[in-house]
What we know:
Number of strands: 5
Order of helices and strands: HHEEHHEEE
Strand content: 15-25%
Structural class: alpha+beta
Number of helices: 4
Strand order of the largest sheet: 3-4-5
Distance between the termini: 70 Å
Largest sheet: 3 strands, antiparallel
Amino acid sequence: MIRRFIARRRSLLLSLMAATTALGLACWTMLATEPGCLLAQGRWSGSGQCYTRLCLLQGDCGQRASPVTGCRFLQPGDGRGKVYFHLGNPLPGANAQARWPTAKESDGIIQARFEGDRLLSLACPVAN
């Protein structure tokens, strides 16, 4: 009886591991395509990468060609993760004050001030 219980537990554990692996592969496959990325409310980059709202925790929110377009989705009180998701990685040296170029071929700068992980203010020169 104990052997039967152990055998059942072992087969249940193997089934659970297989299901978890299959789910992980399905999610990875879905995020590897632009339609799947957009369906997951991610942001598809020109380099073929999907950035999700977890990008700050994952350590990379990518570089946007025109970060200024993300300004319209942000307001004071938003979390740092949401700001980085919409604007991309800031210029080096960001902590309490983060900066982004408005666009690739522009001299304009977007400035954000944070207190902890909350946005205090956002200065976007030309928010579309």
